Amino acid sequence: MHILILGAAGMVGRKLTDRLLADGRLGSRDITRMTLQDVVAPARPPHASIAMSTVTSDLAEPGQAAALVAHRPEVIFHLAAIVSGEAEADFDKGYRINLDGTRHLIDAIRAEGDDYHPRLVFTSSIAVFGVPFPEKIGDEFLSAPLTSYGTQKAICELLIADYTRKGFFDGVGIRLPTICVRPGKPNKAASGFFSNIIREPLAGQEAVLPVGDDVMHWHASPRSAVGFLIHAATMDTAAIGPRRSLSMPGLAATVGEQIAALQRVAGKGVVARIKREPDPTIIGIVSGWPRNFATDRALKLGFTTAEQSFDDIIRIHIEDELGGTFAR
Amino acid sequence: MHILILGAAGMVGRKLTDRLLADGRLGSRDITRMTLQDVVAPARPPHASIAMSTVTSDLAEPGQAAALVAHRPEVIFHLAAIVSGEAEADFDKGYRINLDGTRHLIDAIRAEGDDYHPRLVFTSSIAVFGVPFPEKIGDEFLSAPLTSYGTQKAICELLIADYTRKGFFDGVGIRLPTICVRPGKPNKAASGFFSNIIREPLAGQEAVLPVGDDVMHWHASPRSAVGFLIHAATMDTAAIGPRRSLSMPGLAATVGEQIAALQRVAGKGVVARIKREPDPTIIGIVSGWPRNFATDRALKLGFTTAEQSFDDIIRIHIEDELGGTFAR
Fold first, then answer.
1. What pLDDT does residue B129 have?
2. Predicted ipTM of the assembly
3. Residue B158: its chain A contacts at CB < 8 A?
4. Where is the NAD-dependent epimerase/dehydratase domain positioned along the sequence (chains A, B) (predicted)?
5. In the annotation, is B95 catalytic?
6. Which domains does chain B carry?
7. Backbone angles phi and psi of B200, in degrees to 5
């Protein structure tokens, strides 16, 4: 089986690649070939036991999606996107990559003809939802995004449902929770602090908390995100029905619950590295974000998280990123 | 004030043109110029007291939208679309006109620059909703279309909300109920019978009823549809908020209630011209259509129908289309 990963150089793409290489198979089938694509050169995993190709290209350029699809991968993971902040700052770039790039891809798949019907797994986002919303957002709540990024994701969800309905491919969209703990360096994303306040103290560094302890948000570990992608690629899609995009399960936790979990897992000394510096701008942005979901459809369709509690999310970070240890 | 009507040759476009000409003003401002565009030549109304231009063009062709927008109409009514059945039969044509045509239009408005900020009234459709849905579809119910036409309309709603949020224009999308009584000849649309069973008997002709009396549907008269368009063009949009598309008020009536109303308004002899010929295909199609709505937001924002009952819908048809009389 040939697997194509678009946006393979990103954090989720790298973790998905590692998992697929470790498994050697996807569902019941051996992986015989993988193609890793991104707009920056994807790293070629060392000692890969599977035939690997890397492609550096821009999906929004004419012909680039068609060139990738011409090899007829049986499964395509479409993770490529301009992130929320950049899509908001550069309107044209966001639409060009996040909307037109996806259209090039799905039209290229369609153009391959009736004998080609790959599984397409698309990473959508909870940014398709905008305030006001209920305390828990259910499966029948409208997509009313308040960013261009969320708009582009919501449009792609509609396109993937329609193209799937017409039989051009077998599409599944998954709306990922905020990934926590996100590995790497602190970044300037407004959501960065949810991970920063766990990752940095565990690494012996101070972290800034710009919001109050009562802020609730919707989290899943990187391990869960990869699990969702694998399940979306292997599940029996006959059970989904025509609504092809699903809010993924996650864990609703307040910042206070995050910190209490950190104290249970790592101790008071680690928690003391969190510095409270309220930032009205970030408080304002975060107040418009979804806090909690009722993901009945995804649960019924077999999507499961790797964690039962925020303590688990922290333990997964220590296991997967820190080799089982941390800075006490 | 200069008004541009896209899709002016259609039934709603012609009725809107007639109403604007009769009023001579839109809201508090005199109409000084009207441009009627369609892919087939729009009829030039005789004896028009307002400067009129007609344009025959295809919005999906590069440059055509820009040429229309270059005259900087203050209000643009965007009624142009490939209808549901054709968009389903010709996938490429539907996306080209209904999605790409609209994108050309909104990008052309944006390209005019910061000093141009027209009101854009977009006719969406209740086809953005797909089964399963509640008995009454409310304002927070998801768009999950089951046709390419509904998908294209739902995508345009998202685009118009995002472009409005970014300040490129002042957009309002209105989801029209099924227009009843639709004037003209019987057509092959699956929804045609809702109008046929009223219009044809009133004209002395037989009409075929392919579904059972218990089928409920969501109706508004052509007069109401024009009223919604005028209100969308003149209302204070500050009250709408970021969710720029609204399900319009209408009247939920079963076929049995339609027929009872026809008997009250026109008598038993007219009703006797309805022939019951159940058609399993049409029964199947219609079973997936919305039946009833809770249009709280639209009502609160001042959208009102011209009718209180299905009797009124029939009377409006007799007044507006039949000169006050019918075939007894």
1. 97
2. 0.96
3. 143, 145, 151, 154-155, 158
4. 3-212
5. no
6. 2-178+219-247 (3.40.50.720)
7. -65, -50
